[in-house]
Design a protein that fits this description.
5 helices, about 120 residues
Length: about 120
């Protein structure tokens, strides 16, 4: 390398095109990973919101029923019972409601907790 070498004598346009291609691929991979991550988070958030809505409806039904009424788990809630994190969400919600309610409603919440098999958790 002499003092008279110019930038384009050392680095050819092919090197610049290759570098631009590498950065283009890295940018595409980064954007794809971010998009996938956000899509998964959005999907989980929507599922959690649907579960919360279903739980709210079911709990309001339980609170309005008599103590001797049979408790049935709605299919919309039953499908979430297989996952540990959603089971914990259901447990937290039922325990919070139980702490704030007394009477027949409280008894129904306890029965629902037992019926869902949440005692083992």
């Amino acid at each position: 390398m002499t003092a008279r070498d110019t930038f384009f004598d050392i680095i050819t346009p092919a090197h610049l095109y290759a570098g631009a291609l590498v950065f283009l691929v890295l940018t595409f991979v980064t954007v794809s990973v971010i998009y996938t991550f956000l899509h998964i988070r959005k999907k989980r958030f929507r599922a959690k919101e649907r579960l919360n809505d279903e739980l709210d409806d079911w709990i309001s039904y339980l609170l309005s029923e008599d103590a001797d009424t049979a408790i049935t788990t709605p299919p919309a809630i039953a499908k979430y019972m297989g996952k540990e994190n959603t089971r914990q969400l259901i447990i937290d919600k039922l325990v919070t409601i139980k702490k704030n309610i007394t009477g027949f409603g409280s008894h129904n919440i306890e029965r629902a907790y037992i019926e869902l098999g949440l005692l083992k958790d």
